[in-house]
């Protein structure tokens, strides 16, 4: 009887020990699986976070590439944070001389834009006289043109398209003769009548509602006469603010109609020159508008 009790106790002890060992094994296995799942989750989250960062970096880089001042496909010149090409303009003995250099003093490689490698816009400081010229390359970033500029103070705008370089058109002071200083302001009066006749050719300007930060369409009614092709288009438009600081060179949005589209980033009074060629002669039609 005593031996039987001892045998029963021994069997019970073995069963109990087996249960303890089995339970511990199951517990350890579950923890191991949980640790593996946690590690996998952490790795996944880390990869997702990394991918998110990389995706954002890609977007930022894409935005940077679009706004680095290089050709965006638009005809308007928009302001950039910094121009990588510096231009200088001077007038000597009836010759306009333009010098263009990059930051390393090397001549930039210019692309042809609307049939010309350079468009030079010169406007008198009071925004009355207007000239659209095309200097010729002489080498080493120097461009010249023989042209008779009357004595006056002017602002010159060198409109070029450097390859792979940011460029912003900025006004350059140009004085011809003596006694002509800078103009502090231009008291432009808004035109009540947007119809002008030059050399017996009449052009009327019609616009959509003028406002800031929205597309504005400029429509020039040439009164049934189709302009001659001029620099690869039916016409060209240059816009300056009343201080002559903001320059916009706009080209047609249509090959068959004299329609132009632009944007104004601030309210104010602007002067618009519409250039159209009739009977072999280019006429520049000035209009003064107000953007509210």
Description:
- There is one protein chain.
- The protein is of the alpha+beta class and 292 residues long.
- Among the domains are: 85-176, Sandwich (Immunoglobulin-like); 195-291, Immunoglobulin-like.
- Helix content is 22%, strand content 35%.
- It contains one helix and 16 strands.
- It has a four-stranded antiparallel sheet with strand order 1-2-6-5, with no helix packed on it. Strands 4-3-7-8 form a four-stranded antiparallel sheet, with no helix packed on it. It has a four-stranded antiparallel sheet with strand order 9-10-11-14, with no helix packed on it.
- A hairpin with a 2-residue loop joins strand 9 and strand 10 (201-207).
- It starts with a helix and ends with a strand.
- Mean pLDDT is 79; it is low at 1-7 and 23-80.
Mean pLDDT across the residues is 79
Order of helices and strands: HEEEEEEEEEEEEEEEE
User: Approximately how much helix is present in the residues?
Assistant: 10-25%
Q: Report the sheet-strand fraction.
A: 25-35%
Contiguous runs where pLDDT drops below 50 for at least 5 residues: 1-7, 23-80
**Largest beta-sheet characterization:** 4 strands, antiparallel
> Taking Cα atoms only, what radius of gyration do you get, to the nearest Å?
36 Å
Distance between the termini: 113 Å
Secondary structure category: alpha+beta
CATH-assigned fold name of the domain at 195-291: Immunoglobulin-like
The rough form would be described as globular
CATH classification class of the domain at 195-291: Mainly Beta
CATH architecture of the domain at 195-291: Sandwich
| Number of DSSP-assigned strands | 16
Strand order of the largest sheet: 1-2-6-5
CATH superfamily of the domain at 195-291: Immunoglobulins
Counting DSSP H or I runs of 4 or more residues, the number of helices is: 1
